[in-house]
Design brief:
The protein is α+β, with helices and mostly antiparallel strands and 218 residues long. The protein is 32% helix and 40% strand. Strand 3 (99-104) and strand 4 form a beta hairpin.
Length: 218
């Protein structure tokens, strides 16, 4: 009986210790949170800057093609299929690729498409052209990037970043369409263990959602 009580006590202690360790591992220091937010903010700014260069007609075809590749590398799966852990469903989800919502001041509903498809509409490296009905496109940042709380999901961390961008489409030197769109983007932070024993935290961008769209020029 004493052995049984001892075994039960030891088992309970192990469970408590394991739970405490798991809790401690999931908690981040304020310094780590600041670092993660800064890294995510930099990624979102790189994304916006990448779009700006992709649509720049003054850059060479080679340069614009490189910016397409570099922009896709900012995202989980790099525009291709990827999998992630869904905490609510408690299982891994297979995704066809990062998705991006788009909107228009002329339509109430938003549309969702693969990010890679959206970027290739702006500029297709295989043709050297945009499939959008404009002779010139301008995309610029319209607000500072804001990053919300970082939390642990399965084997990685997640957060949401908020930003706004301006889109202007020209035809024959005149503004044909313009808007300012507020967006939020899902962000992933994964821990990578290096052979040296040190750890590297990698930030990747995910799905993008539209929050609002308003006319830029009235």
């Amino acid at each position: 009986m004493k052995n049984l009580k001892y075994f039960i006590s030891l088992l309970v202690l192990c469970i408590i210790t394991t739970n405490v360790q798991a809790q401690n591992e999931s908690e981040l220091t304020e310094s780590q949170k600041r670092e993660f937010r800064l890294r995510v903010k930099q990624k979102v700014e790189e994304f916006q800057n990448g779009l700006k260069k992709i649509v720049n007609n003054e850059l060479s075809r080679k340069a614009r093609t490189e910016h397409v590749a570099n922009t896709l590398q900012l995202f989980i799966g790099e525009g291709e299929k990827y999998s992630y852990y869904d905490e609510e469903l408690d299982r891994r989800i297979e995704s066809n690729g990062v998705k991006m919502q788009t909107s228009s001041v002329n339509q109430e509903r938003t549309q969702s498409q693969l990010l890679k498809k959206y970027i290739y509409k702006l500029y297709d490296p295989s043709t050297g052209k945009s499939s959008l009905p404009y002779t010139k496109i301008q995309i610029d940042s319209a607000s500072a990037v804001r990053v919300d709380n970082i939390y642990k999901v399965g084997d990685h961390y997640e957060c949401v970043a908020y930003f706004a961008q301006k889109f202007i489409g020209y035809r024959d030197g005149k503004v044909w369409y313009s808007d300012k769109t507020g967006k939020k983007i899902r962000c992933f932070i994964r821990k990578i263990d290096l052979p040296t024993g040190e750890a590297l935290f990698e930030a990747k961008l995910g799905d993008i959602y539209v929050l609002y769209t308003e006319r830029l020029f009235r």
